[in-house]
TrEMBL record:
<protein>
    <submittedName>
        <fullName>Substrate-binding and VWA domain-containing protein</fullName>
    </submittedName>
</protein>
Amino acid sequence: MRRSGWLSLVFGALVGTLVLVLLATTVTAPSNATRADCVRLVTSSSTEKGDLIAELAERYNNTGRTFDGGRCAKVEAYKKTSGATLDLIADGWNDIDERQPEPQVWMPSSSLWLDLLRQRGKGERIRTGPKTSLATSPMVIAMPEPMAKAMGWPERTLGWGDVLEVNRNGGWASKGAAYAQWGNFTLGKDNPRRSTSGLAATIATYFAATGGDYGKIETAETVRFVRGIEASVAYYSDDSVAFLKTLYDEDRKKPTPYISAMAMQEQMVYLYNRGVPTGDPAQLKGNPVAPLRPLVAVHPREGTMLIDHPFLTTANASPEQQAAAKDFYDFLLEAAQQDRFRELGFRDPGGSGNPELAKVVGTQQTQEPPKIGVPTGEQIQKMLDGWEYTQRRGRILLVLDLSGSMNEPFDKNRKDKPYSESRIALLKPAIRKQLEYLHPEDEVGLWTFSDRYEEKMPIGKVKNVRGPMLDLVENLTPKGDTALYETVMAANEKMRREFDPNLINAVVFLTDGENTEAGTKEQVLQNVDAERLDNSVRIFTMAYGAQADSRVLDEIAQKSKARSYQAIDPYGIDKMFVNVFSNF
């Protein structure tokens, strides 16, 4: 062999070896998730994109990415409704019940929450900087397709005025005899103090009522319009994702749509129609089943609000965490991650969607839809204050377990307070606090149960019964067994007999145990089954402590088209009550 050929072979072998070494180094280099020297970066995202942010955070951690000359970051992703996070940031962050650490990055659904934080005088808790947006999604009126068509879609552009008109003219029967079976127009809406969809819908309603002149927020005509819209609300959820899950579950069970419309982001309509009502991107890989009745994303003709999904750095972030936050933000704006946002139904930061989005949500409007004027923080606060009086009022029967187990420690295996305190002692202050929060025009009554149920206070206006009920709560004494099934059915039947179509009729049912008396679960579920939202009672259940039969309580709430809540830790009791009563 010639010398030059031999040298070429040697050189080639060396190069090949070097490439293999480099590849091996790349493959075996530790990801940020396993390194101990990376900057810890805690993020809190709104719930509808929480699973997506967690997925992208894991992708970021696994890249081995560095910044600032070799620093690395390890991102921890959590999710919580935007309104709940606002409260925590404003109040100094005390989230012991969920063990969620204070974040250095907040990704709410909308910059509106930052405006409200500033309105509270706590704007300094978020670092100032250039306006950021990870993605956008317009707020829409999402309607089951048969109902949208009954109102003239797609030939006719619909809006909030049409929602108001249906119920003012006698419900769905006004659209034709064939639609009378749908009853009244029922609207699903989140609580605007906790959810971006609820807040944006409230602002959009005021915009429609005032013609865009926010100086007219408090006029009688505006209040009448907004109150008319709110009168159609079934109940105020604390999270649209839970509402969508119920809608999806009912889609194949009954011929009548579960609800007439919901105020939500277009992106959530996209995922629902793809068969993923919970918003979990992982479900798209499992060939999800699309609903029989897809939702139509109606952009209100009066205008809509573009939800801007900002990326905000909190004031508690150290210089290292600020640098890490910037690197994570830059990562989220890269093409691969932005493509993932598009795959899940979001529009880009400029407001443009894609043809697939338009096809799935029932609109050809892929460009940025007409936007309404964004109110100031002061104007938003006025709307929220006004909503306290325009919202649909609740008629609530509070049912409390007074069986003997309520005298036992919250956790028998712990000797430290508050775990060692009795369940009834821990419960009383939470009830007192919530009764103080109820609006004076709401209606509330009190039952207790052990071996049998007993009416302690007839239902009346909060302003008239709050004082006596507080005294009753203070003197509650547990004893006996747990007639759970019998009490649920009796409470449901009472509320159905006294049903008021102008109010949200609900039972709030709390227990720390399981049924020990007569009856079967099947009887209860048949008794509470809600055939239609405008003539049935919501039963919101609360599993109090680890011994509560949470599975049965979940089924009862689901069957009545309500929500179930749980407090397995003393620190979660107040939060449980706040979440339950935010539905009213």
